[in-house]
Amino acid sequence: MTVSEIGAAFLCQDIENSFSGALSDPGYGLPSEPGVHFNMPLPCQSKAIVYRFRSHNMLEPFYKPNMLSEAHDQDMILPVLQPKRDKILSLPSPNLFHNSDSDLVPSLAQMTENLVISGMQDVNGGLNLHSERPNALSFISFTIILVGFVTYRCALVARKDIESNKQPSSLNARTVSPKRKKNRKSGKNSGIVEDKNTSSGDGYTSSESGNRPWLKLNTSVHGDTDGRTIGKLFVSNVEIAKGSNGTIVLEGIYEGRPVAVKRLVKTHHDVAFKEIQNLIASDRHPNIVRWYGVESDQDFVYLALERCTCSLGDLIEMYSETSEIPTFTDDQPTEAMIEYKVRLDSMRSIMQDVKLWKSNGYPSPMLLKLMRDVVSGLVHLHELGIIHRDLKPQNVLIIKERSLCAKLSDMGISKHLVGDVSSLGHHATGYGSAGWQASEQLLQGRQTRAVDMFSLGCVLFYCITGGRHPFGDRFERDINIVKNKADLFLVEYIPEAVDLISHLLDPNAELRPKALEVFHHPLFWNSEMRLSFFRDTSDRVELEDRETDSDLLKALESIAPVALGTKWDEKMEPAFLNNIGRYRRYKFNSVRDLLRVMRNKLNHYRELPIEIQEILGPVPDGFDDYFASRFPKLLIEVYKVMYKYCREEECFQKYFKSNAV
What keywords appear on the UniProt entry (predicted)? Predict the structure, then answer.
């Protein structure tokens, strides 16, 4: 293997002789002129030595005694033993393998189809290895050089492919499986050039896609988006959100359906498995994000989830100047913030018709609906024995269809209570997010469903106040939670919110209300429900007049200083007082009498003079606003009394508890 050569013979297309026959033809030989160089392509019916390679290094220990004289130029042509010829012609080797624009390369590709191996045609003057080496070595030498040449040709093609990929190309050229990418990188596939027309980009050939048209759904939906296909899932490079432990959320397509792809690091496969289990158990509910499927590669697990418009945190941020920008990592925080603001601006156009707060600062019916959706999702999880444990605005997703709907997501650290078990015990694994955990989570105590109710209280406060937190700024929240230093000043103008949130944030987990109780709290009642409650309460307490010592009536009248503040006639218009005085005498310091006025005017609204109707406003919203603006604490104070005394009565079941959510 100290010397090896490649020779080529060029046959005309009209010559039907075989390659071996051409070599045996005495007239089919080398030109005899010394020092002549070929100009490619070769003339018809000619052959020549194309390249000679000589090296002593590889087998020096074995062949050193018989080594030829040292060659200083590896590409130079050395003398060969040829019985009938003493002249050798060579090609200019420096340009042969380095000039991709030369005509030599395509001609050489043609010539390699008719390579001549020395030692097989000695008699006819064919190319020859050193005569002292066996023919087997000559065949090995030729094979090595041939493989090298083929490798070089494939490298040229690969380079052209890389250059062409810089221009817009078909999606299939980019969506290659991770396994194939790895092979190319390691060189195992270096001799393979894919035909872009034979692969659909998802691991199926074009013939398979033709017979199974549903396999083309992904490519037809995502068009020219950059990304790659993993099984049934197409994962784009468009990032939606970031999570902890390397988790990110990307846009994607699953079986033709737009999805959000949650990519988890495979080393955290237990988190992914747990989330899948809990999603399968719970995602049939309208307020739980749907799970469609899972795929994986050697590094990541990909969850295909229902794609939503934005998170609850994003929605509040869009419409509030007081909410906090999410935290960013130290890596390019400015760029991340810019991208986040750009994304919010793009979503504002989608949500431009959404109104979250009334002019008086109260949450709008739409915001109350979204807040109640969150509670509804928790009711469902808790009924299944699942504790979410990481409830926060960023884990509540908003989808806009005919109207907005909120859905719980990100249950990677959720826990499933088995059987009748009510808690996870001490030192439960997994951590929630800073600032949104109950004190028992922070102190690694016994965790029950109540940890979700604490987080819910923080989320409701966040929504009502436009992005504020009941325990202060980001870096002091956990300390204030442990010390039970909540500040509800910002929601004091909504007594129902103060009542509910204060109970949800109770440091004693056993005193926090259950999810189903929260779902029916007056904070979420609309005007019609509020007026219905006042009417039913008035009818109920009227019956107490016949009893001299009614605990219910005593309790109701005892709230007058808080519920009324002063005599209620002082907050009414003279025209309205004249109207109600025509039919009955009322005690202006009595809660029961005020409820009776509300009940009577509601039942006989159409009979009222136009002047009085204009004072009260339209039913139900205007009528409710009239009394709520004058007696803001009336509803919650009456509710607490009726809850204590009448919650088991059938006519009040719809206000206090229900089996259907």
Answer: Kinase, Transferase
Per the CB < 8 A criterion, the answer to whether 136 and 89 are in contact is no
User: Is 390 an active-site residue?
Assistant: yes
Domain boundaries defined on the chain = 3-161, 173-307, 365-524, 527-656
d(CA 459, CA 268): 27
Tokens of 254: 């699953």
For the segment 471-482, the average pLDDT, to the nearest whole number, is 94
Question: Pick the catalytic residue: 390, 452, 506, 624?
Answer: 390
CATH class label, 527-656: mainly alpha
Cα(611)–Cα(113) distance, integer angstroms: 105
Q: How far apart are CA 525 and CA 532, in angstroms?
A: 10
Burial of 197 (0-12, 13-18, 19+ CB in 10 A): exposed
Cis peptide before 363 (omega within 30 of 0): no
Hey, what amino acid is at 562?
A: V
- Is the pTM value of this prediction over 0.70? no
Q: What angle do CA 443, 446, 450 make, to 5 degrees?
A: 100
Q: Which two tokens stand for residue 379?
A: 């009711």
Please report which confidence band the pLDDT of residue 99 belongs to, taking 50, 70 and 90 as the band edges: very low
**Phi, psi (degrees; rounded to nearest 5) at 303:** -100, 125
Strand intervals (E) in 29-169: 46-54, 115-116
Evaluate if residue 44 carries a pLDDT over 50.
Answer: yes
Class in CATH terms, 173-307: alpha beta
The reply to whether omega before 43 is within 30° of 0 (cis) is: no
Go through the chain and tell me how many residues it has.
661
User: What pLDDT does residue 57 have?
Assistant: 56
Q: Which helix (H) or strand (E) holds 498?
A: helix 495-504
CB atoms within 10 A of CB 57: 6
CATH architecture of the domain with range 365-524: Orthogonal Bundle (1.10)
- pLDDT for residue 312 is more than 50: yes
